[in-house]
Amino acid sequence: MILTADIPGERLDAFLARCADNLSRSAAQKLIEEGLVTRNGRPGKKNDKLNVGDTVEYTIPQPKEVDITATEMPLDIVYEDDDLLVINKPKGLVVHPAAGHQDDTLVNGLLYALGDDLSGINGELRPGIVHRIDKDTSGLLAVAKNDYAHTFLASQLKDHSMARTYEAIVCGSFREDSGTVDAPIGRHPSDRKKMCVTERNSRHAVTHWEVVARYRGYTHIRCKLETGRTHQIRVHMAHIGHPILGDTVYGHKKPELGQDSQCLHAGALCFTHPRTGRPVMVFAPLPQYFQDVLAKLQKMN
């Protein structure tokens, strides 16, 4: 694919992430590192500053054969057709294989249930997975069955037209009934496993929130993502002084109310169907762990 730079001084990796279809900044950087991106016919570097009119050519390699064990597991499929399905992921289930989780992830279960009927855009690690949620976040996750559906859904993530709504219980009380956190998110400078609000090597991030119910010392909120950065809601809520209950990474270090992982649930997903062009709205009720915490909070009031 060939693109033409249109903003003077923009970094090569940022330009690709903005203009290339279905490419995140990290994916663009990987292509550059593998020598699959040229600038005016010469190999590019991720921090190259572009001039208007520069020609940028990139190549997307063919997906590698999947070498992942298919594992039988129960899957809560809340929507399915010939192009995609939506899974209600339980808390504690890792989405795709990584160190320490090679054959007990959602991808392993999808391969068992669907076999080759998954998109291959994400290569060997995440077949079919259009977007991800953390291991200890429960809720809705879209899975593509073919590359056309995958690209179409990924483009909605990129232009923010896929609506994702989360339920969360956070520490502390809000004076306002609703608000917006508009703060860039990047890798933590000293702990590479964490994200943080920072101006350095960060990406634009916006989270809208509204109060659902107030309790003594805690608040049930609903969050709508305008962007989809890693750990976005967890980082943004901690940034404004209201970390998510149970989030010992970004919030209080000791478990509270019996929760040692975040009370965060992806409860609603709305997108345009890649084949029909019609809106699809999918909902997942609050899981039992979330309901149990709310019951404890109601008794404390």
In short:
By secondary structure, the protein is an alpha+beta fold.
Written description of the protein model:
The protein has 301 residues and is an alpha+beta fold. It has three domains: 2-58, RNA-binding S4 domain (Structural Genomics Hypothetical 15.5 Kd Protein In mrcA-pckA Intergenic Region, Chain A); 63-155, 2-Layer Sandwich (Pseudouridine synthase); 164-266 and 290-300, Pseudouridine synthase (2-Layer Sandwich). It has six helices and 16 strands. It has helices at residues 12-19, 25-33, 106-114, 147-158, 232-239, 288-300, and strands at 2-4, 37-39, 42-43, 55-58, 77-80, 84-89, 138-144, 163-171, 178-182, 185-187, 195-197, 202-203, 206-215, 218-225, 264-272, 279-283. Strands 5, 6, 7, 8, 9, 13, 14, 15 and 16 form a nine-stranded mixed β-sheet that branches. The protein has a four-stranded antiparallel β-sheet with strand order 1-4-2-3. A hairpin with a 2-residue loop joins strand 13 (206-215) and strand 14. Helix 1 packs across helix 2.
